[in-house]
Structure formats: C-alpha cells, structure tokens
C-alpha cells in the first residue's frame, strides 16, 4: 500500500483500562483515503473504542496512531444527548462549526437537503427534542457532514431509520467521495458500499484487516476459522500421540531419556503454534417475559395526533388492547409515531387502566435513570425482594455482577437495551409499549427477543422498522397513520 494513499494507520496500538481489562492488543492496520471501511466484532470487542481513539477521546496505552496531517474527523454518534435535545436546531449546528458566526442558516439548510431531512416549516428554532427518532438519525449525520470531514465516522447510522431512510443513506454512502468508517449490525446495508473490514475479536483483543465487500469478508473469516480449527486439530493429535511415545521412551536409558527430552521440547514448540480460533459472540438464551394477570381492558386509544404534510392532524380511533393483543403502529419517519406513544403513556387521547404495570422501551432509553447503577435500575422495578433474582436475570442478558455495579449511563447502548429486557422479566408488566425495541441490540439477540415478544401473554403496542423482526411476531391489529 502506497503510504501517500494512507489516511489512518495504527502501529502496535494497545488500549486497556487495566491489566485485566484489555480492549486492543497491538493493533496494526491502515486505511486508505476515500475508502469505505466497516468495523465488526463481538459485543465489547472495542468497536466504539476505535472511534474514541480516532477522535482523541481516548489515548493509546502504547503504540502510535498516525492520521494524515490536517485530516478532519467528524462522528455521527448513535444518540443525541439529553442536553442537546434542549437546543434548537440552529443552536445544535452552531456547536458543530463554532468558527462560523454568520450565514450558518444556509449551511444548515444545504446539509439538511443532503440527508433528506425536512424540518417542519423550515423552522431552525424548532427544538431538537421535537424531531422523530428517524429525523434525529438524519440530524446526527448532518451534524457530522456540516463539519466537512475528511474522515466520517458513523456509529449504527440505520437506527430509527425507515426503509426509505436506509435506502437514502445507502445511496449517499455509495457515492460519498471521502473516507468513511462505519459500525453497524445491518449486513445488507453494509454490503452495498463496504470495500474493507476491520474485524475485532473480544477474546484475543486482536484486529484483523480484510479487503472486499461485507459478505465476501464474512466468507473469508469463516474460511480462516475453519483453517485454524483444522491446524489446531492436527497439532493436538500430534501432541497427544507424542505424549504417549514420551511415556514409553523415558527411563530406559540415557539415550532414550535424551530422546524423550527432545520430543518434550518439540511438543512445547508445537503448543505455541496453536492459534486462538475466533469464537462467536454469546447470544442471550431464550427467555420469557412474565405478564401481570390483569382482568379486562389494559388500554383504550380514542384519539391520535400525527403529522399530515406540515400540519398536525387529529383523528378519532377505537383501539382496545387486552391480554394477548399485539398492535403495531406504522408510518414513515416524521409522521409522529414516537410522539403518539408518549401521549398514550401520558393518557392523552388514551386511557391506561388503573393498576396496569407498563413496561416501556424507548428509542433513547428515557425510561432509565442514567445516574443509578444497573443493579438499582433492576431493583426499582422488581416485584419481590430476593436480590439473587436480580443477579440471575441480569446474567441471562450478559450483564455480570461487575456490570451491575456500573452506572446505567456508563453501559454501552447494547447493554442498556438488554438491561431493559431484564427489567421486564422482573417487572412482569401487563402491557408492553415498545418503540424500536431492536435499536442498539446485537443482531444475534434479535430472533430471541422476537420469540419472547411473540410468546408474551400480555398486551403489546409496538413500533418497528425491521420487517423481518415484525414478521416473527403474530400482530393482530395495525394502526397505519398514513391511512387515517
């Protein structure tokens, strides 16, 4: 690779929080200018850490990171912070380019067109909090693009996007003329534009670099795993056979002892040749969400508000949810699905029956207290007082004891999502209200979660843009806001 074409290079980069918590071990890789690179790996393998090292949020424990002189880096994060939600759109973008004091409105409108984000009434004084989840996803990308970066970092950019939004983002990245590095679990999305993959292994803390589109790389990784398994299998058989020979040789004579020692040395040398075979990420086991045995109606929805063009429309409806009801709310980004769920939770145009325990999964985990520990978060919803139940349930969702002592805000987004499902198991809700319940969740867990929701005996009110996920749940009523 021509060094002049390289925009990022990691030379023996190690990063660790402690001697027992190593994230990257002597990582070596190079990224060409204008390439599209995917970062893949198991939960906790260090995908987000790579971004933090590139942006300077974290510094390497050892080794060096070389970034082309004057190369500008911008990141489109997974989520907008609670403080940023309070800002107007104009104030939000002013943070991205503080050096530009005048005429920023034109830059904002230009970049909003690029990401296909239509602001109601073109009102840049609108609060960020008033945008839908899909609109916020586009806003995060626009925030990065307005900085005109040479290296664009995207962290789960398809979260909250509807089909049209994913298609627009895919096309945009395909033609994007500069370097782009993406973390995503959406294989079909990645395959269209990826021309290389950095594969991080949580068990060895190593980074492997592959060239090719996403599916080609998956095949290369699978082939390498099989080669490593065969190599280890041959070495292990050879080592075992020679151990048997050593036991027969030793003690018979000086010459035989000398030969036995030589065989032992060969065995130790071959042991060092055994390679760490890449292990697959753990998948949560099947689980059941117990339901509150509530008699009668759980929820009645009488009135819904949504966006029709640039105006707010209101329609009367008659949707009643009982045990076993599965209702999905559908419509494109920006129509007001998430806002509708929040109004239902506030009993605005709807009535949640007295005494119904509601489990809520929001796009931004607003139902969680980020300052409490994960343990206290689970404790706050559990029905009993057997704390061992907390540890048992948390372990099912890959949240060991040490994770439970961390603040919720310090957990990864995927761990926050799994924490929500652990809460549901302890809460035993009568009604689940779920806004994009696969957001931030590792794709390996999604079929397990779909099965749990399909088997859930309480009432379910759902928003999801993942057709394959929804197809695994027996929905018996749809509220399509575009048809009202």
Helices and strands, with pairings:
Layout: E1 6-18, E2 21-32, E3 36-41, H1 47-55, E4 62-67, E5 73-76, H2 82-85, H3 89-96, H4 104-114, H5 133-145, E6 151-155, H6 163-175, E7 179-183, H7 187-193, E8 196-200, E9 207-211, H8 214-249, H9 254-273, E10 299-308, E11 311-321, E12 326-330, H10 337-345, E13 350-352, E14 358-361, H11 374-379, H12 387-396, H13 401-404, H14 413-427, E15 431-435, H15 446-455, E16 459-463, H16 467-471, E17 477-480
Parallel strand pairs: 3-7, 3-8, 5-6, 6-7, 12-16, 12-17, 14-15, 15-16
Antiparallel strand pairs: 1-2, 1-4, 8-9, 10-11, 10-13
Helix pairs in contact: 4-5, 6-7, 8-9, 12-14
Task: Count every helix, treating DSSP H or I runs of 4 or more residues as helices.
Answer: 16
- The residue-averaged pLDDT reads 88
- Major sheet attributes: 6 strands, mixed
Instruction: Work out the radius of gyration.
Output: 26 Å
Secondary-structure content class: alpha/beta
Strand line-up of the largest beta sheet: 5-6-7-3-8-9
Choose one word for the global shape: globular
Cα(first) to Cα(last) distance is 57 Å
The fraction of residues in strands falls at 15-25%
Number of strands: 17
Uncertain segments? none
> Percent range for helical residues?
25-40%
């Amino acid at each position: 690779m021509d060094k002049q074409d390289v925009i990022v290079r990691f030379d023996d980069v190690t990063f660790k929080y402690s001697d027992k918590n190593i994230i990257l071990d002597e990582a070596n890789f190079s990224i060409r200018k204008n390439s599209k690179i995917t970062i893949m790996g198991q939960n906790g393998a260090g995908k987000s850490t790579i971004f933090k090292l590139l942006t300077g949020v974290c510094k390497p424990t050892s080794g060096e990171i070389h970034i082309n002189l004057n190369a500008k880096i911008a990141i489109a994060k997974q989520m907008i912070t609670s403080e940023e939600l309070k800002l107007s759109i104009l104030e939000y973008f002013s943070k991205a380019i503080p050096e530009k004091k005048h005429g920023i409105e034109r830059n904002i409108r230009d970049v909003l067109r690029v990401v296909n984000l239509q602001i109601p009434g073109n009102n840049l004084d609108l609060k960020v909090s008033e945008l839908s989840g899909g609109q916020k996803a586009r806003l995060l990308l626009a925030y990065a693009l307005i900085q005109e970066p040479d290296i664009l970092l995207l962290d789960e950019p398809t979260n909250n996007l509807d089909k049209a939004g994913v298609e627009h983002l895919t096309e945009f990245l395909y033609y994007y003329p500069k370097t782009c590095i993406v973390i995503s679990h959406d294989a079909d999305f990645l395959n269209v534009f990826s021309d290389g993959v950095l594969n991080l292994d949580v068990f060895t803390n190593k980074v492997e670099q592959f060239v090719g589109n996403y599916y080609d790389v998956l095949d290369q990784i699978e082939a390498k795993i099989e080669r490593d398994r065969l190599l280890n299998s041959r070495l292990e058989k050879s080592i075992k056979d020679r151990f048997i020979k050593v036991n027969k040789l030793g003690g018979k004579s000086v010459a035989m002892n000398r030969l036995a020692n030589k065989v032992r040395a060969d065995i130790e040398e071959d042991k060092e040749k055994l390679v760490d075979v890449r292990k697959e990420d753990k998948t949560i086991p099947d689980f059941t969400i117990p339901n509150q045995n509530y008699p009668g109606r759980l929820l009645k929805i009488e009135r819904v508000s949504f966006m029709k063009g640039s105006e707010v429309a209101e329609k009367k409806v008659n949707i009643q949810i009982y045990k076993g009801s599965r209702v999905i709310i559908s419509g494109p980004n920006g129509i007001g699905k998430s806002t509708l769920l929040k109004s239902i939770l506030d009993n605005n145009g709807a009535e949640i029956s007295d005494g119904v325990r509601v489990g809520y999964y929001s796009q931004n985990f607003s139902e969680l207290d980020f300052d409490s520990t994960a343990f206290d978060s689970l404790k706050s919803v559990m029905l009993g007082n057997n704390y061992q139940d907390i540890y048992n349930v948390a372990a099912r969702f890959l949240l060991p004891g040490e994770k439970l002592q961390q603040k919720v805000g310090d957990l990864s987004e995927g761990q926050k999502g799994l924490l929500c499902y652990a809460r549901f198991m302890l809460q035993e809700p009568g009604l689940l209200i779920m806004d994009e319940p696969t957001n931030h969740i590792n794709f390996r867990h999604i079929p397990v979660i779909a099965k749990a929701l399909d088997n859930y005996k309480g009432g379910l009110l759902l928003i999801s843009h993942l057709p394959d996920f929804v197809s695994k749940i027996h929905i018996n009523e749809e509220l399509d806001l575009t048809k009202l």
